[in-house]
Structures are given as structure tokens and as C-alpha cells.
Amino acid sequence: MEPQRNNFKIVTSKKSRVILPNMLTLMGVCVGLTSIKFSLDQNYTLAIIAIIFAALIDGLDGRIARLIKGTSKVGKELDSLTDVISFGVAPAFIMYFWSLSGLDKIGWLICLVYVVCVALRLARFNVNSNEQPSWRDNFFEGIPSPAGGILVLMPLIYDISGFSFFTISSNTAVPFLFVAIALLLISKVPTYSFKKISVQRKSTIFLLFGFVLFFALLLIYPFKVIVISGIIYLLSIPISYFHFRKLSKKENETIENSDEHEDVL
Fold first, then answer.
1. Which domains does the chain have, with CATH numbers?
2. Residues 120-160 pLDDT 10s
3. Dist CA 212 CA 23 (whole Å)
């Protein structure tokens, strides 16, 4: 008679598996709220770093939840509430204390509009995420809230980075950028989600090297790298739009051809 084998499991139950990703999500809330405290103290460097950490945590919690099979409805809603705070309320407060307060009531109105657009964008995402996965999962409708939260901080990040390519007038650039990002958040412009990236086996080493190089540069020149990354992301939006249209057109042609074959039969 063979002895029974004890199957060792790091995480034993569904309830236990949801704890880790939800803890990370709550850490993101704390980091996002802490960025507001830093901005109140006019320590905008730490405020921006806190938002970047919140974005990294936001990218990790969902992937860890899927990896350990710890996804839950509570976690999904908690993640959205966290995003509203970390990438809606916190960036709005930071930029209000840095620049928009000079516009008095108009500045506060712009902040309110931006936060409302973040909330609407996340509500739409929660509804649309229940659809069947396809190639469309590689695209978001509008820009995601973490990207929006970092993009609205770009004038401040540029000011801290030390770049001097051109001078930014915060009184005009910040309100315009807030409105533009708010519209992109609630728009249906397709943007890359980078959820499913297929890489050939022989190219894996180059991809890993690229990630290591990026994070090394991020540690050495954090604000310069963020500014350049933000510009690259903005330039990728029209590329993703035409790529989406190309794939959509190809899908429609395939459906039309299949319908024609069915009619013939």
C-alpha cells in the first residue's frame, strides 16, 4: 500500500488567495493618499514618486491575483475605488496645490471635471470587462486611469526633471492638459493595453534586457525617464487607433466572407 502524499500548497483556499492582491490594492490606496499629504507640504518630488509607486502596485495586484487564482468581485471593485483615489483625486490635489489654485474657482472646477471623468472611465471599464475576451483585449477604450493620472502630472514632472527644451506656462498648459486628458479618459479612442504581448523565445533575452535597462534608467534619472515615457505613450495613441481600425476591418471582412459561404451552402 502506497503512502499518502501530502500535496503542499502555499495558498490553501480561495479566501486565502484573495488576501494578497487585496492587501496590495489597499497599499495603493495608502500610497495615493500619502501623495496628497506630500503635496500639502509642498514636497512635490515625493508626491510624484508616491503616484508612480501606486501605478506600479496597480499593475501588480491584478496580475498576482490572476497568477494565484485569487480574483474576486470585491477585489475588482476595490481596485476601481483605489484607482479613483490614486489616479483621480490625488493627481488633482497635487496639481491644484502646485498650479490650479491660482485660477481660484475655475481651477477647482477643472479638478472636479477630471476626477468625475476618471470615475466614469472606471465604471465603464468594469461593465465592459465582462465581455468575452478576443483580440480587442489588447486595447482599452480611452486611456487607462493610471496613465491619465501620470499624464496630468507631466507639467510638474517636466519642471522637476531639469529639462529645458521649452518653457511651460503652468497657468495655460495645466488647464488645457487636464481637459484633454479628461476627454481621452472617457473617449472611445482605442489605446494599447499591453495585456497580451507575444514574444518569440529567441527574443526573450532582449526583452528582459530592455526591462532591466528601463528600470535602471528610471532609478538614475526618474523624472527625465517619466517625461520621455509620457511623450512616447502620447505618440502611441494615434498608432493604436489605426492598428485597431486595421484589425477591426480584417475581422469584418472575415465575418462577411463566412456569411457568403454559408449562403452558398
1. 14-250 (1.20.120.1760)
2. 998 888 777 655 545 567 788 889 999 999 999 999 999 89
3. 26
**String of DSSP letters for the chain:** -PPPP----SS-SHHHHTHHHHHHHHHHHHHHHHHHHHHHTT-HHHHHHHHHHHHHHHHHHHHHHHHTT---HHHHHHHHHHHHIIIIIHHHHHHHHHTGGGGTHHHHHHHHHHHHHHHHHHHHHHHHTTSPPSGGGGEEES--HHHHHHHTTHHHHHHHHT--SS---HHHHHHHHHHHHHHHHHS--EEE--S-----GGGHHHHHHHHHHHHHHHHHSHHHHHHHHHHHHHHHHHHHHHHHHHHHHHHHHHHHHHHHHHHH-
Q: Enter the C-alpha cell of residue 82.
A: 483605489
Comparing C-alpha atoms, which of 157, 147, 238, 155 is closest to residue 185? 147
Q: What's the pTM?
A: 0.83
d(CA 153, CA 150): 5
The Cα–Cα gap between 31 and 70 comes to: 23
Whether 159 and 99 have beta carbons less than 8 Å apart is answered as no
State the angle between helix axes of 204-220 and 222-264 in degrees (0 to 180), rounded to the nearest 10.
150
Find cell 481637459 and name the residue.
Answer: 179
d(CA 14, CA 2): 30
Rounded-to-integer distance, Cα 244 and Cα 79, Å: 27
- Tell me the pLDDT tens digit for each residue of 27-61: 989 999 999 999 999 999 999 999 999 998 888 87
**Among candidate residues 140, 162, 172, 143, the one with its CA nearest the CA of residue 227:** 162
